[in-house]
Specification:
The protein is of the alpha/beta class. It has helices at about 5-10, 15-30, 105-125, 140-155, 190-195, 245, 255-260, 270-275, 295-315; strands at about 1-5, 35, 40-45, 50-60, 65-75, 85-95, 100-105, 135-140, 160-165, 185, 200, 220, 240, 270, 290, 315-320. The protein has nine helices and 16 strands. The strands form two sheets. Strands 1, 2, 3, 4, 5, 6, 7 and 16 form an eight-stranded mixed β-sheet that branches. An eight-stranded parallel β-sheet has the order 10-9-8-11-12-15-13-14, with helices on both faces. α2 (about 15-30) packs across α3 (about 105-125) and α3 runs parallel beside α4 (about 140-155).
Length: about 325
């Protein structure tokens, strides 16, 4: 059994094509019926906004693994110089149940989120080969930065422009040097929203603020899940989720669309439709609204990849 942390993950490196392929393969494995991902469980601390989310999952296929993600969200930590979220993943051998690894890696949570967005972004770019991508990222924290890295690697020269907005401002020196000439700091989220055709919300906003319809034909990567007023996206037909039961709860934008605008499961498509049934072909040129709650199989796929890579390279700390 080995222990891995963020330093080990950074030493092993980030290949966005590989990580996106891992997410796609996990979807195909799920479609084949060789996975299990029960609903997440929320442990809440009375009288606070603090919570810890448990996400168990089994992912079969050639390298079957089981495990659980245990991620704590303590919003006031930032006042004390501590991370808002603390992530831990335990992996078990799927054949014997024996524990194989513990990964204490906040980075893995961001890698998973961006790789899942990458799955949709790649499909969107493939479906619209003549469209130059103007990427807007609302929220310039760790998740927003990983989304820019992912998009730059997956899109290459098709990434024509980048707009960034954050309530705390954006220092363009924090943008990777090769991308700075294509990047601007927007004065408001509205300015960014209106000039972008791919928009990623990567915030920790306590209230919904996006109250206008998206640009026609755009892709909305709703990473933070609680940024859109339901009426702003009520006319969007191409609504994709990872799993309806998982996403239609916990005050997500999808739940609010369900409660206030009558959206139901039949009015959405899922990642299986996207990957295995060319789901975007049903909506040529239309606006796409992607809402992934984050299935545990994606965390297991990416954690398993780094566990196997570390084992081959002799990295990690051995545990008894």
């Amino acid at each position: 059994m080995i222990f891995l942390n963020d330093d080990h993950i950074q030493e092993l490196g980030v290949d966005w094509h590989k990580l996106t392929n891992l997410v796609e393969n996990a979807v195909r494995t799920r479609e084949a019926g060789d996975s299990a991902s029960p609903l997440k469980s929320y442990l809440r601390f009375p009288g606070t906004k603090n919570r810890i989310i448990a996400t168990p999952a089994y992912l079969g296929g050639e390298s079957a693994l089981a495990g659980i993600k245990w991620i704590a969200g303590f919003p006031d930590n930032i006042r004390h110089g501590l991370p808002r979220a603390s992530n831990l993943i335990a992996l078990n051998d799927a054949a014997t149940g024996q524990p194989l690894a513990v990964l204490r890696c906040n980075l893995l949570n961001g890698l998973r989120a961006a790789a899942v967005s990458g799955l949709m972004l790649r499909a969107y770019a493939k479906a619209r080969p003549d469209v130059d991508i103007r990427l807007g990222i609302i929220g310039w924290g760790p998740i927003g930065r990983l989304h820019l890295e992912m998009a730059a690697e997956l899109l290459g020269s098709r990434l024509a422009g980048i707009s960034l907005y954050d309530l705390q401002g954006v220092d363009l020196s924090s943008v990777p040097e090769p991308l700075r000439s294509r990047t601007e700091a927007a004065a408001s989220w509205r300015e960014l929203y209106r000039r972008s055709n791919v928009i990623a919300t990567c915030t920790v906003s306590e209230s919904r603020y996006i109250d206008e319809a998206p640009p026609e034909g755009s892709l909305l990567l709703n990473v933070s899940l609680r940024d859109f007023e339901p009426e702003s996206v009520a006319d969007v037909r191409a609504i994709f989720v990872d799993d309806w039961q998982e996403i239609c709860r916990e005050n997500t934008d999808i739940e609010q669309l369900h409660l206030r605008c009558g959206l139901n499961a039949e009015g959405t498509r899922n990642v299986g439709d996207l990957v295995c049934r060319d789901g975007l072909a049903e909506f040529p040129g239309e606006t796409v609204f992607f809402n992934p709650m984050g299935l545990g199989i994606f965390d297991i796929a990416i954690a398993g990849h780094y566990y196997r890579l570390a084992s081959r390279r002799g990295l990690g700390i051995g545990l008894e």
